[in-house]
Amino acid sequence: MALPPAVGAAAFAVQAHVHAGGSLRRPASPPAAALRLGPLFWPWEKVKVGPLSVSPMGFGTWAWGNQLLWGYQESMDSELQECFNLALRNGINLFDTADSYGTGKLNGQSERLLGKFIREYEGPIKSPDDVVIATKFAAYPWRLTSGQFVSACKSSLERLQLDRLGIGQLHWSTANYAPLQERALWDGLVEMYDKGLVRAVGVSNYGPKQLLKIHSYLASKGVPLSSAQVQFSLLSMGDEQMELKAVCDSLGIRLIAYSPLGLGMLTGKYDSSNLPNGPRSVLFRQILPGLESLLTCLRSIAEKKGKTMSQVAINWCICKGAIPIPGVKTVRHVEENLGALGWRLSPAEISELESTAMAAPKKMIQNVFQTA
Ligand SMILES: NC(=O)c1ccc[n+]([C@@H]2O[C@H](COP(=O)([O-])OP(=O)(O)OC[C@H]3O[C@@H](n4cnc5c(N)ncnc54)[C@H](OP(=O)(O)O)[C@@H]3O)[C@@H](O)[C@H]2O)c1
Q: What's the confidence (pLDDT) of residue 298?
């Protein structure tokens, strides 16, 4: 059977590398033998997001330009470009970004880098489905009219050097603190869709109640709501997330799972004596001590399946019907996370992970902008 065009030899190599003894070391040269006889996913395993067809996993680019939380330096750009190229070569066509990504004078850097990487990509990019950029427009307090929101969209398009976006997402709802502003933002989404600036419209950090409201408002204007992005992982799988998933399913909205690795806590590489630099350490110090059983469970399932903990955590999101968008900063992250595709956890493994996760004393804190 012919391979999907975008899924090349690297897909096989990645699987082989990641499988090799569960080793996290980067091989000196590409592995020769493949253990998995097939691509990471077949064309028919692509996922519909409104009119778009995307890979079962995308990649997140919050770190690309963020010095404060993620330690970004411009010297990382060539590796980030390699990350993008490797992902695309392996059929990953969904990249999540936001107009607020990038700290200080680097604001917009994530979109700018994506724009540059798309331009400089050496392989074929023939159709708009080949690279789907999902950006998010911040609900800044000074964005008070629909026109200002459309201008924000145009600025993103400029940074991305694109005529049209894949998914234009409202980054958060203002319902909790500025309900009057929200209608203007919704109208902004309608306008950008009607003007053809975005192929699909999505929201982020919306809870089930607010999601129902925006869905019906947009529907009344003839605009389909295609995606809802929310924190969703083994550390963030409470009633709110499950209710949101059910609402999404009933309305045909695709759930995009952000922070699927719990900001790195589910990778297994951190513990109380080995914390990341920067503000994440404060959060990790609070949460990690309560995660022993969950991390042990993840590790044991990973070992049994010849996978890594990150791959199991990402695969769990896929098994729940979400599109995970793990954040990546290095080629190593991309290689390993690609290995989350092409297999499935069994129902017994899923329920073991979930019951252990539910018993964990601490969960991830929810985004301050998350609504009911
Ligand atoms: N809509 C929203 O409000 C919102 C909020 C948050 C995120 N997001 C989106 O979701 C994306 C993903 O979420 P996230 O970046 O917050 O968290 P995440 O995906 O849970 O964690 C990403 C971090 O984990 C580490 N990592 C990734 N893969 C790894 C691997 N295979 N092995 C070891 N470490 C690995 C890296 O950091 P270290 O190496 O430094 O540990 C990476 O930056 C973001 O990039 C962004 O696009 C959206």
A: 98
